[in-house]
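S.,

Sequence below, as promised.
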Amino acid sequence: MTSKKDQTSSKKDSNKQGKQPNDSAEDIAMLIKRAMAAEMETFQETVALMLNESLEKALDPIQKHMAENGNILRSLKEQADIHAKKFSTVFNQIDSIQVSLRKTEKETSFCVAEVTKLQKKFDELEDRSRMNNVRLVGLPVGNERDDPRGYLQKMLPIWIPQLDRSVPLEIDRAHRIYSNNTARPRTMIFRLLRYTDRQAILEGARKAKPTLPDGTKLQFFADYGPRTMQERQKYKEIRAKLWQKRIDAYLIYPAILKVTYKGVKMSFNSAEEAKEALKVTVLADGEDDA
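The prediction came back faster than expected:
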C-alpha cells in the first residue's frame, strides 16, 4: 500500500510537470514582442532615414534656388541702394534747377519788360526821325521826271488849295520807294524842312481830296517806322469801308482811329474794336455793315 507521503509527492511532481508548457509559451510571446519591437524600431529608423534622404533630395533644388534668389535679391538691393542714392542726387539737382529756373523766369520777365520799353522808345525815336516825312500814294511814275523836289514844290499848292502860298514849301529831298506791287505806282516819300508844312499838307489833302486830270486820286499819309506802320495798316479795311460811306475817319499817332459819325465822335485803339463797335452802330441806324 502506498503511503500518504508518496501520494502527496506524486501530486507535487504532477503539478510541476503541468506548469512547464505555459511558462514556455509566455517566454516565446515575450521574445516575439521583443523581436517585433526591435524590428519596429529598426523599421522606423529606416523609414526616417529614407524620408530624410527623400526630403533632402527634394529640397536640395529648392535650397539651391533659394540661395540663388537670395544672391539675386542681395544684388537687387545693392542696385536699389545705388539707384536710391542717384535719385536722391537727381532730386537735389532738380530742386536746385527749379530754384534757378524761378530766378531765371523773374530775370527773363524783367528783361522782356525792359526790351518792350526799349522797343517802344526805339519805335518812338524812329517815328520822330520821320516826323517831317510825307508819303504820296497814287502819283504815276515819270510825272516828276528827274526833279521830284521841284515837281512837288510846284504841284502841291495846285493839288491842295488850302496851303498858304505866301510861304513857299521847302522840301529837303524826295524819292520813290521800292515795291513788289507792280499793279500800282510806287509810293513817293518827301521830307519837308518844317513840321508845320507837313501838317498843313496832311490836313489840306484830307479836305481837298486831290485828283489828277485823268481822275487818279492822290493820297497823302504821314511816314512812320515799320512797326507803327504795321499797326496802322490793320485799319486799312475798316477805313476803306468808312470812306465808301463818306464817314469821316482818320488815324492819330501811334495807331488810334478817330471816327465822327452823325455828330458822334468815337475813338478806337484797335481795328477789331473799331469793326465790332462800328458794325453795331451802323446796323442800329439801318445801314449796311461797316
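The first helix runs from residue 4 to 129.

Coffee later?
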